Amino acid sequence: METIKKEELKKILVSITATMEKTKEELIALDAAMGDGDLGLTMCKGFQTVTAEIDKINEPDMGNLIMKLGMKMNSEVPSTMGTLVSTCFIKGGLKAKGKTELHLADLVEMGRAAVQGVMERGQSKVGDKTMLDALHPAVEALAVAAEAGKSLAGAQQSAYQAAVEGVEKTKIMKSVHGRAAYYSENSIGRQDPGATAMMYIIKGIANACAKANSTL
Predict the structure, then answer these.
(1) Beta bridge partners of 102
(2) What CATH number is attached to the domain comprising 20?
(3) pLDDT tens digits for 127-155?
(4) 3-class SS of residue 102
(5) Exposure string (b/e) for 185-212, b if CB count within 10 Å is 16 or more?
(6) What does the pLDDT look like over 56-73, one tens digit per residue?
(7) For residue 97, is it within any domain?
């Protein structure tokens, strides 16, 4: 897999959904420690919804398709994390409008648009102990991999490793947004649930790309 069309996108969504289902209880536990504990349920429902929805959309334009999936997720899981993941779909999709297939360079551009969208929507920045602390390093690792001429699968693996490192760094950060902000200094030492969920989204993407390569 070196390009992503609708069929490949469906496989990616299936992979993300499977990853979310496997990690649901972990995400619930992380979120319950400093939030309302529904993160695992939200992410499972959101990705189950868009995975089912993609077959109902007759749209050759990958940008329009991804934006429609984002809007569907937003309507089905109107939580903070659901809204921010939807923002990633919509802002990323805008950068893909007019394309019938996506290359690695397109994914970098879409990822950077997603980062900017989350910063604007969540009024947050890298270092605030949010999903950005996994998403931003992953996108930048994707860009470095693209510049180095890596395969799509190799680039996505690099993105996942960067996300893992980003999540680890959230343990030394203090929460400043949402319910977790009430814990202030006491949030230090805990990894951020949102960043963890984003890390698993990226893992799902990397797994799908690796699986596609292994079957070639």
Answers:
(1) 4
(2) 1.25.40.340
(3) 999 999 999 999 999 999 999 999 999 99
(4) strand
(5) eebeebbbbbbbbbbbbbbbbbbbbbeb
(6) 999 999 999 999 999 999
(7) yes
